[in-house]
């Protein structure tokens, strides 16, 4: 159901606190093996917040937005939340944010993103592509380099502003080719259109100290840039959803967990066994999780760099409201919106209103967690 959405800054006190080669609009069928919905028989009918998690909370500062169910006015296209003051007549801004290692932490500005893609890069790590429209943080950091995977993910946002630090020559050619075709406006620290808006934080080491004020860059958008349209559908919880305590994504040098918190009515992100904290020391939380099982090829720009194939179709999971639903994702072209359909009924499955994080995982890399596993992680 459309529910009250609560964004909570959650401060943790614990000893383990954390101190390229695709063309625009190309259609590719992703061949992936079926990913079963595992561990559902171990999930209890009601997944509650474990006492151990409550004991970790030292302070909570809530900022509440109440969703009026009778609201018939405009909604933010990338969250489905009511736009009580109207939809901003501005394009989306997409920023590449580093998550390579401990030097990337904490990231600044991730909490304000409407949508975040979590995509594999070289060396068994991942990197974020954060999309902003309804809220703009003052600072985003660390801004990192673009990859070939990014281009396909940008092209259904109605000509956004793409912000990144730099790229190698082949990725730059790919970026420029899609830009000249009308896909987006690119802004990098090496470009004449964006260089003056980037700087480095002297308190952090390179390359994890690149920062930018995305509001300034949003103002440099060309006349072709437009307000984004919705790329997901939003609505009530499907009847085929089953309770879930959490979910895990494990790759060679990273383990990411999301644990459902019934008090916050959100998923709390853990990375490598500890809460993933933002620049204020608050745990990152999210309303929707989409696990899209995709193929990865090899980027033309770097044989060590995997390239996500985000067109075609494949198995997926949608996690919302403390539940998981087995679904299939479909996107024939890069310019198309995402279609999420129920595995059993074939009907469209809507997301909850609010923020969405999308994991582009290879088949077999994800698994649904039992309540015992969730309690053990946060214990």
Helix proportion range: under 10%
Q: What is the overall shape? A: globular
Number of helices: 5
Largest sheet: 11 strands, mixed
- Taking Cα atoms only, what radius of gyration do you get, to the nearest Å? 19 Å
- Strand runs, count: 23
Q: Spans of 5+ residues with little confidence (pLDDT < 50)?
A: 1-35, 38-47, 49-64
Estimated structural class: mainly beta
Give the number of domains: 2
SS strand fraction: 25-35%
Distance between the termini: 31 Å
Mean pLDDT: 86
Instruction: Write the H/E string, N to C.
Output: EHEEEEHEHEEEHEEEEEEEEEEEEEEH
Task: Characterise this structure.
With 379 residues, the chain is mainly β. It has 2 domains: 16-64 and 232-378, no CATH class; 93-218, YerB-like fold. 10% of the residues lie in helices and 32% in strands. It has 5 helices and 23 strands. It has helices at 51-56, 149-154, 169-180, 214-218, 371-378; strands at 5-12, 57-65, 93-97, 115-120, 126-132, 161-164, 185-188, 198-200, 210-212, 242-243, 246-251, 254-261, 266-271, 274-275, 285-286, 288-293, 295-298, 306-309, 312-320, 323-331, 339-342, 356-361, 366-369. Strands 3, 4, 5, 6, 7, 10, 16, 19, 20, 21 and 22 form an 11-stranded mixed β-sheet that branches. Strands 11, 12, 13, 14, 15 and 23 form a 6-stranded antiparallel β-sheet that branches. A two-stranded antiparallel ribbon has the order 1-2.
């Amino acid at each position: 159901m459309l529910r009250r959405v609560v964004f909570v800054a959650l401060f943790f006190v614990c000893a383990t606190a954390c101190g390229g080669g695709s063309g625009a609009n190309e259609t590719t069928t992703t061949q992936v093996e079926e990913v079963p919905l595992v561990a559902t028989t171990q999930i209890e009918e009601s997944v509650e917040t474990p006492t151990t998690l409550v004991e970790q909370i030292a302070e909570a500062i809530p900022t509440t937005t109440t969703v009026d169910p009778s609201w018939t006015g405009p909604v933010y296209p990338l969250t489905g939340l009511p736009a009580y003051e109207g939809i901003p007549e501005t394009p989306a801004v997409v920023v590449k944010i580093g998550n390579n290692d401990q030097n990337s932490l904490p990231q600044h500005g991730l909490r304000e993103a409407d949508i975040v893609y979590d995509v594999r890069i070289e060396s068994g790590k991942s990197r974020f592509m954060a999309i902003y429209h309804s809220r703009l943080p003052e600072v985003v950091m660390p801004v990192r380099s673009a990859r070939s995977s990014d281009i396909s993910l940008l092209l259904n946002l109605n000509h956004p502003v793409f912000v990144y630090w730099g790229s190698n020559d082949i990725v730059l050619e790919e970026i420029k080719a899609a830009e000249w075709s009308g896909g987006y406006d690119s802004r990098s620290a090496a470009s004449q259109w964006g260089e003056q808006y980037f700087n480095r934080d002297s308190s952090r080491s390179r390359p994890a100290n690149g920062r930018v004020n995305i509001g300034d860059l949003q103002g440099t958008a060309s006349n072709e840039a437009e307000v984004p349209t919705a790329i997901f559908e939003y609505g009530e919880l499907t009847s085929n959803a089953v309770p879930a305590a959490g979910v895990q994504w494990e790759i060679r040098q990273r383990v990411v967990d999301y644990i459902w918190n019934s008090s916050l009515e959100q998923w709390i992100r853990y990375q490598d066994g500890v809460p993933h904290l933002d620049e204020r020391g608050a745990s990152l939380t999210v309303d929707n999780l989409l696990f899209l099982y995709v193929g990865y090829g090899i980027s033309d720009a770097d044989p060590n760099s995997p390239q996500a194939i985000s067109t075609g179709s494949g198995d997926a999971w949608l996690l919302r409201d403390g539940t998981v639903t087995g679904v299939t994702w479909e996107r024939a072209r890069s310019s198309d919106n995402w279609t999420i359909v129920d595995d059993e009924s074939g009907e469209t499955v809507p997301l909850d209103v609010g923020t969405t994080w999308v994991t582009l995982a290879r088949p077999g890399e994800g698994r649904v967690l039992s309540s015992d596993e969730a309690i053990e992680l946060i214990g």
